[in-house]
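As practice, study what follows.
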Amino acid sequence: MGDGVVLRPHRWDDARAVLDGVMRNYDHLRTFMEWIKPDYSINDANQYIERSIEGRDTKKGLSFGIIRGQDFIGSIDLSYFDEGPKATEIGYWIDSNYEGKGIISRAVSELIDLAFSELGMNRVQIRCATANVRSAAIPERFGFIKEGVQRQAIIRDGKLYDFAIYGLLAAEWDPEKK
């Protein structure tokens, strides 16, 4: 993806790097990532890797580590495949030291292409807290339509947050927006 950054499927030996990345970014991630918790452990990281590998093996999802050099700096995935409407959802996070460098934009672009061109999906969705302005900028940049808002859909640190739902159809995707 440029600048020494690659996407690669998660491997069994990624659990320690995932744990270290999550804990290093705990304060950065905790407000908007529903899965993060103060006692996130190596067991949690192993379970995430196991689900990632199982999803790939059963063709129910695809998860990738975002790697720069030897460093694990984030994760991105197509979290499910709904074969009826041919739909999937992209989720992502990046190490705070790499925010604003275009890495997530490039990774999302790659996954949109993968979903539409190789996997035959018709719809890609991205959901994020409306208060997470940086995350919401990603689907907007690629022409996703803001389809709605789930009001007070998640609670983090005792505060309720709204969740925006963005959708993009295969017929709307312009690969030139990469």
In short: Strands lie at 5-9, 62-68, 71-82, 87-94, 123-129, 145-156, 159-169. The CA atoms of residues 46 and 137 lie 31 Å apart. The first helix runs from residue 15 to 24.
